[in-house]
Amino acid sequence: MHGCFTRWGAFLVMGMVGMRVAKAFLSPFCPHATAECPSNAAFTTSSSCTGHAMRPPPPLFHLPGFSSARHAHSSTARAASVEGTEASRGVEEVVFHPADEYFQQVPHHYDHVEDYLVHYEKSIKDPEAFWSEIARNFHWETPWEETLSYNFNRSAGPIHVRFFHGGETNIAYNALDRHVAAGLGDRIAFYTERNDLEPIRESGPGGLKDQYTYREALEEVSRIANVLKSMGVKRGDKVGLFLPMVAELPLAMLACARIGAVHTVVFAGFSKEALADRLCDAGCKAVIACDGVFRGSKLIPLFHTVDAAIQLCNERGHIIEHTLVLKRLGGDVAGVHLTPGRDVWWHEATAKASSSCPVEWVPSEHPLFILYTSGSTGKPKGVLHTTGGYMIQAATTFRHVFNVRPEKNDIFLCTADCGWITGHSYVTYGPLLNGASQVVFEGVPSYPDVGRLWHMVDKYGITHLYTAPTAIRSLMREGDEHVTKYARSSLKVLGSVGEPINPEAWKWYHEVRSLGQGGRYGVVEFFGQISGVGVCGGSRIYDGYVGSIKALRHLGQ
Q: Contact, 28 vs 56, CB < 8 A?
């Protein structure tokens, strides 16, 4: 968490500030300022630079508040300083200049690059103090005794990494209760955008809602938690979640965390065998499921998959004791038949449950969730994430990379599924820990037509849109007319995640904000699904890779 760098983190944010796009293969930063390998060359490989000690670059967590005049000057100076090097390598370069509107309208975390560099140096020289300062913004029922300890030497003892040892907290409390206690209970936590464009009917406790305030989310989480406790689920028990992308999925995750249970979310597109493998391997005591869902025009009877997976678990000697079933479709659309004594309807059980549930305070290293790899390279591997370190990382990267400002009525949309780490970090935990408002989207970007994303942008006033290159390319192929019929005037930041984005898709996505309106917005890219690495506004960067802070030392501020 302190200053690590990765070229493999598939995390990209496109803010409306200046950048460069170039076709080049990048290597770790070389600190040697030579003619062949200048220190401000921002990661380009060089055959003339061999044998140098490589070190990672400083990660940036923000979009600093440059004035447009400063940025214009720095762009020219920096372009001249690297022009010869880039030309000799045959790098094709396109420069995108920043928009004044972004700097005028969007607050920044630091006023000057020097302020950021002081913060960065502290993270390297004194990571304990750096992360302690951030962690003190959250509620700890018991303060920690040691911020960070680790051992990677087997001869010195067990391999371990520990954050905030001795501290006790609860991530659900920090995501909900803390904001309600601060007087933000009426702020919207979730808007639910269902698959078929029809409004969701409110039907009281346990019914599906089209939105949740932070207070309503806290009450529903408490009801779910009380239902789980009535099923015998306790601290440390594992709970499997097999739900579509409705607001009730992150609420169920938080309900598990509230009582110290460990959730394992399984992508709702998996087969009965894949689901059974994960439920058995994790040792789940209970499952939270759904009757069914429409994905586009296709009916997916999810509970049939759950029921079959539970039977497979039984055959393998693992018994799932209880199932809580969300009635998403209603009626007999999905053809659900509950098993008495094992299955209960969500709406019936939560209607009887109290809207108040005591918090289970857990150690910082208490397991929060197990998330399985896709299994594309062999047997799925369960990755265990613990509470304290994950809480601070998810909250910090969301805050500084996306720069979402709830107090400015920013609205966030991440189209990722909670069956993957992006959904955990940037649908459930990151946004809520920062008190953000967001849209949870159940459907697909192409249904009922390929203008669906832009329809939602206008409907909710979405300011931050975070989606995948695959979706971007598919929308690009359909033509601009599906974009230009919507205003899109609320957009401030565009993000891409999941894989490196190709230059053509990058440029099209970058122009989405201004298509049909004239004008143009620049873009800043960020990598950091693993590390939280970011790039300062105006730093030269390449499609698919992160840039270098070293270039920013030549801004002449």
A: yes
